[in-house]
Backbone:
């Protein structure tokens, strides 16, 4: 993939030949560029920092899916800072102002953020597929500890893969008739970078989109034909048999339908993230492929600005999607910003708590943290007898059994 800030080396002046008379950007272009880039990058940086904070500081937000979203937020922050801010300085000064070390470091972090974001999207797509289409396996595969290990592998792989840019980038002098400008460019001709461009295009754009198309198609099929995974129903039946001495607090169908709705909401939200990733990266990726066969390359200033804005928007829009499509994220954002009147923590439905306890106790591996995503986004709990979080999950059943045997509660 072409560098977002580097200049094509083929346009640099060979030896002592000049490039003609240099003309600065128009005032209109500078104002529009600085305003739009500052607005998108500023909001994106704030939004992604909020995503990281709410997941790290809120216990019930620490789910496997949200771990991948934190990884995506960190990658987006890299893109916004390493690609967006140099764009502002370029519009202001017309040249590269960060020196040789800045050229190497900024180029490296650009590619690292771009590639890590693509891998993070692929990771949560696979996690959603396993969780929806293979719910039994999900109890052992979609765990918090496994998600952390996968994220470490993603960042280790992309960090090593992008090391080559330390050796492929350099600062160059653009010699014009009226001025000499510094730029962050490539060390050799653009022709030698084509294998890298097409490898990035295939591995970090085409393949993730193809995989996401197939997996979300299978997920949609499962949600339409079988909206609720069978394991939750089976565990709920087992729970009913074990609690014959008491009354059921809420109906199984009610909690089952709520879980199904919650899973649909999470899956739709992540599908929107993937769709926007494909659409917003398409202009720039297409430009790189087309320019690989053009001589001279197409470098219209306004179109380049449009492509860059699409990239920045892709990295900035995800927190907006979370806020719009996830009640849990919306509530966490409000709590982080101290917005709205303070409300006491909602009490959890006993039937939901017991169902989750049975699921946890039925697993032989790591705790199935994946189900936290669905369980925490259920409708407003109604039972006043069991406050949420009163006891650890491993002790809830014995406590709730005694409460049920002592009281008769209507379903």
Residues:
């Amino acid at each position: 993939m072409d560098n977002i800030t580097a200049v094509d080396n083929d346009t640099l002046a060979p030896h002592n030949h000049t490039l003609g008379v240099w003309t600065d950007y128009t005032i209109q272009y500078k104002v529009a560029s600085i305003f739009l880039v500052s607005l998108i990058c500023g909001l994106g940086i704030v939004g992604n920092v909020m995503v990281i904070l709410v997941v790290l500081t809120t216990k019930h937000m620490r789910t496997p899916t949200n771990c991948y979203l934190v990884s995506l937020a960190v990658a987006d922050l890299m893109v916004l800072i390493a690609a967006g801010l140099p764009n502002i300085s370029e519009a202001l000064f017309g040249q590269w102002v960060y020196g040789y070390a800045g050229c190497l470091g900024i180029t490296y972090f650009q590619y690292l953020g771009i590639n890590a974001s693509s891998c993070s999207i692929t990771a949560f797509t696979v996690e959603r597929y396993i969780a929806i289409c293979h719910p039994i396996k999900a109890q052992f595969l979609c765990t918090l500890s496994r998600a952390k290990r996968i994220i470490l592998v993603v960042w280790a792989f992309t960090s090593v893969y992008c090391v080559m840019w330390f050796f492929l980038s350099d600062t160059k002098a653009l010699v014009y008739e009226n001025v000499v400008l510094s730029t962050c460019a490539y060390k050799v001709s653009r022709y030698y970078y084509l294998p890298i461009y097409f490898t990035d295009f295939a591995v970090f754009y085409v393949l993730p989109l193809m995989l996401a198309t197939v997996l979300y198609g299978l997920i949609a099929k499962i949600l339409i034909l079988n909206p609720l995974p069978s394991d939750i129903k089976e565990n709920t039946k087992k729970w009913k048999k074990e609690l014959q001495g008491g009354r059921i607090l809420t109906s199984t169908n009610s909690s089952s339908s709520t879980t199904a709705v919650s899973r649909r909401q999470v899956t739709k939200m992540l599908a929107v993230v993937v769709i926007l990733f494909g659409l917003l990266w398409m202009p720039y990726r297409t430009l790189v492929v087309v320019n690989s066969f053009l001589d001279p390359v197409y470098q219209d200033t306004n179109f380049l600005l449009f492509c860059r804005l699409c990239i920045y928007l892709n990295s900035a829009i995800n927190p907006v999607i979370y806020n719009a499509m996830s009640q849990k994220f919306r509530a966490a954002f409000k709590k982080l910003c101290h917005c709205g009147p303070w409300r006491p923590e909602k009490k959890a439905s006993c039937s939901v708590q017991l169902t989750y306890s049975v699921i946890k106790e039925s697993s032989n591996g790591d705790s199935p943290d994946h189900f936290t995503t669905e369980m925490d986004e259920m409708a407003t709990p109604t039972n006043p007898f069991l406050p949420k979080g009163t006891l650890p999950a491993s002790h809830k059943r014995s406590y709730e059994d005694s409460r049920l045997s002592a009281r008769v509660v209507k379903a």
In short: Residues 9-233+256-337 form a domain with the Rhopdopsin 7-helix transmembrane proteins fold (CATH 1.20.1070.10).
